[in-house]
Write a structure and sequence with these properties.
Elements lengths: L8 H7 L10 H5 L13 H12 L10 E7 L4 H10 L2 H7 L4 E8 L12 H18 L3 E5 L4 H7 L6 E10 L9 H8 L12 E2 L1 E5 L6
Antiparallel strand pairs: 1-2, 2-4, 3-4, 5-6
Helix pairs in contact: 3-6
């Protein structure tokens, strides 16, 4: 018997399915950022698949400006605690239950000529999205965080000035919502929302909505 407020992974996936205006691939509808992680390690083979997916993301001039600092409770607990300490307190509250934490880092200059790569953050985002979709296919959950101390992460992990910490990624299996504080339970159970097309898809000039994709 489930405890009060306990929800299964399947229940979460059903409840959190994106309510799309037009049909999209089911795996995109299922992807969601949980706050409730289980105390269960992620299999090594699955981790390898995640970073293989990231490796094959597109990038400007095939520069592949992404790097990832991978930490886990089981294999690199000291590194895990260091990365956890970089998170803002409100993120530490729930992220400490995730078995895997990853720091995504962007190389800020092209390798050839050393000119500034203005697409680096964009391309790191593509790699992280590949990782996220692969994780969803493997019934893992991914939660991306911008709420961390970039200067502290740079110092603790000796990241060179040529590279910029971008985000921290929590990875793991779905846990028990009832283990979260009440405020976070409300966030976890809240319906997903997105802006209407009229606010971000334009035609002809900025701010002019298109009739091809109506709200």
């Amino acid at each position: 018997m489930k405890r009060a407020n306990q929800h299964s992974k399947d229940e979460l996936e059903i409840r959190k399915l994106a309510d799309t205006k037009y049909p999209i691939e089911e795996i995109l509808r299922r992807r969601c950022s949980t706050l409730a992680f289980a105390d269960r390690p992620v299999e090594v083979e699955k981790l390898r698949r995640l970073f293989e997916a990231a490796r094959w993301a597109p990038s400007s001039y095939n520069e592949q400006p992404w790097s990832f600092l991978l930490t886990s409770k089981g294999e690199n607990h000291e590194g895990y605690e260091r990365l956890l300490s970089c998170l803002l307190p409100q993120n530490q509250l729930w992220a400490r239950h995730a078995p895997v934490l990853v720091l995504a880092v962007a190389k800020q200059h092209f390798g050839s000529g050393g000119t500034s790569n203005h697409y680096a953050f964009h391309d790191v985002g593509l790699a992280v999205e590949n990782l996220t979709i692969e994780a969803t296919a493997l019934h893992l959950f991914v939660h991306l965080m911008g709420g961390f101390n970039t200067a502290e992460s740079r110092k603790l992990f000796e990241i060179p000035e040529s590279h910029e910490p971008v985000s921290v990624i929590a990875i793991g299996y779905f846990g028990n919502i009832a283990d979260l504080p009440a405020e976070l339970q409300q966030r976890e159970l809240a319906p997903r929302k997105r802006r209407p097309f009229s606010e971000f898809v334009f035609s002809g000039r900025w701010g002019h909505k298109t009739n091809l994709i109506p709200d």
